[in-house]
């Protein structure tokens, strides 16, 4: 479970009592934990009136976050169709403000090169993903996201977005607008392999 997988938890909390706003505030610093191969740190921030208004201001970072660990963190989710023959990782910073009910998130994410493989049943698609550098803001309540910077390594080339925004809400069509340039994409590096169904059925029988 998620609780059992979290390790090396530490935190400094400062119960400073009521502030000028009239609410109790808890200061947070050096709040760290490990999950899988990943490290998370909230370096500074505070939580105000945690039982009611739940105002928050937190600044943190994460290091060497692997895609497989992210899937595990989301409730032990497994996606057999997606694998990472060459697995990279993500580093970045995170700022959270607003309230528990209506947080506003700003993030800066950099990732190393990796290879993503998707099994569609009859074919396996292999996509080389290069180094990425993205800065974005997200309002989870409205689903609105805006990308301030986006440089994506893809198919041994690069995609640079000058502007990107969208709205992503469960049960509703995704809406987004993109403006940018592509340079040096090598579509021959997009590999498609057909699955031998007889060999696949034999392999499934052998594993029973």
What is the overall silhouette? elongated
Mean of residue pLDDT?
Answer: 82
As a percent range, the share of helical residues equals 10-25%
Helix/strand class = mainly beta
Put simply, the count of helices is 3
Instruction: Name the quaternary structure.
Output: single chain
String of helices and strands: HEEEEHEEEEEEEEEEH
Unreliable residue stretches: none
Rg, alpha carbons: 21 Å
Percentage of β-strand residues: over 45%
- Please report the distance between the alpha carbons of the first and last residues: 26 Å
Cross-sheet strand order for the largest sheet: 1-2-3-4-6-7-10-11-12-13
Report on the architecture of this protein.
The chain has 208 residues and is mainly β. Helices cover 10% and strands 61% of the residues. The protein has three helices and 14 strands. The protein has helices at residues 2-5, 67-73, 197-206, and strands at residues 6-18, 24-35, 38-48, 55-65, 82-86, 90-99, 103-111, 114-119, 123-129, 132-139, 144-154, 157-167, 175-183, 191-194. The strands form two sheets. The protein has a ten-stranded antiparallel sheet. A hairpin with a 3-residue loop joins β8 (114-119) and β9 (123-129). It is elongated. 3% of the residues are buried.
Summed up:
It contains 3 helices and 14 strands. It has 208 residues and is mainly β.
Descriptive key words:
14 strands, four-stranded antiparallel sheet, mainly beta
What is this structure's SSE topology?
Blueprint: H1 2-5, E1 6-18, E2 24-35, E3 38-48, E4 55-65, H2 67-73, E5 82-86, E6 90-99, E7 103-111, E8 114-119, E9 123-129, E10 132-139, E11 144-154, E12 157-167, E13 175-183, E14 191-194, H3 197-206
Antiparallel strand pairs: 1-2, 2-3, 3-4, 4-6, 5-8, 6-7, 7-10, 8-9, 9-14, 10-11, 11-12, 12-13
């Amino acid at each position: 479970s998620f609780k059992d997988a979290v390790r090396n938890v530490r935190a400094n909390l400062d119960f400073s009592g009521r502030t000028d706003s009239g609410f109790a505030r808890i200061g947070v610093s050096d709040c760290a934990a490990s999950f899988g191969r990943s490290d998370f740190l909230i370096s500074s921030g505070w939580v105000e009136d945690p039982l009611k208004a739940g105002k928050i201001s937190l600044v943190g970072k994460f290091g060497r976050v692997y895609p497989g660990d992210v899937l595990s963190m989301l409730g032990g989710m497994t996606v057999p169709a997606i694998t990472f023959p060459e697995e990279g990782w993500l580093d970045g910073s995170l700022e959270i403000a607003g309230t528990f009910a209506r947080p506003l998130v700003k993030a800066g994410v950099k990732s190393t090169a990796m290879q993503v493989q998707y099994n569609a049943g009859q074919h396996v698609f292999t996509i080389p993903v290069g180094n990425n550098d993205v800065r974005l803001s997200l309002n989870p309540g409205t689903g609105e996201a805006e990308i301030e910077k986006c440089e994506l390594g893809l198919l041994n080339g690069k995609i640079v977005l000058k502007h990107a925004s969208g709205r992503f809400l469960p049960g509703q069509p995704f809406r987004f607008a993109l403006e940018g340039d592509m340079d040096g994409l090598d579509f021959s590096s997009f590999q498609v392999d057909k699955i031998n169904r007889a060999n696949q059925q034999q392999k499934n029988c052998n594993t029973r």
